[in-house]
Amino acid sequence: MQYKTTRPLTVPGLASRRHEDLTRREYMRGYRVLGGDRGDLHFQGYTLQPENNQTVLDSPVLLSYDDMTPDEVNDIAEEVLAQAFESIGFDAVQLN
């Protein structure tokens, strides 16, 4: 099932403007993806918010086989993003 998050997904700091938009391959696919144990997080690039010193994912969607409440969707999506960001930093949102 496909679930839209109901709150913004952000990472601290500013990713590179160079990778803000989808690459040609990502554009053809329609998204970037981060894989997680309980679902895959798809998003369409990101937006920089220098005033808040954060990077915000564009149109995040969680794909999972489980039935979930909106709070569970948000929590799992944040967990997937946090684990990827902790592991590889900004490459988690910049490259796919």
Give an overview in words.
This protein has one domain (about 1-90). It is about 30% helix and about 25% strand. The protein contains three helices and seven strands, in the order ββαβββββαα. It has a four-stranded antiparallel sheet with strand order 1-7-4-3, covered by helices on one side. A hairpin with a 4-residue loop joins strand 3 (about 30-35) and strand 4. The longest helix is centred in the C-terminal third of the chain and has 19 residues, at about 70-90.
Question: What key attributes describe this structure?
Answer:
96 residues, alpha+beta, 3-stranded antiparallel sheet, 30% helix
In terms of topology, how is this protein built?
Elements: E1 2-4, E2 10-12, H1 24-29, E3 32-35, E4 40-43, E5 46-49, E6 54-57, E7 61-63, H2 70-88, H3 91-94
Antiparallel strand pairs: 1-7, 2-6, 3-4, 4-7, 5-6
In short:
The chain is of the alpha+beta class. The protein has helices at residues 24-29, 70-88, 91-94, and strands at residues 2-4, 10-12, 32-35, 40-43, 46-49, 54-57, 61-63.
Considering DSSP H and I runs of 4 or more, what fraction of the residues is helical?
A: 25-40%
Reading side by side through the largest sheet, how are the strands ordered? Answer: 1-7-4-3
Oligomer classification:
single chain
- Gap between N and C termini: 22 Å
Average pLDDT level: 90
Global morphology: globular
Q: Please report the number of helical segments.
A: 3
Task: Indicate the structural class.
Answer: alpha+beta
Order of helices and strands: EEHEEEEEHH
Count of discrete structural domains: 1
Radius of gyration: 13 Å
Question: Segments where pLDDT lies below 50 for 5+ residues?
Answer: none
Strand content: 25-35%
Number of strands: 7
Largest sheet, in brief, is: 4 strands, antiparallel
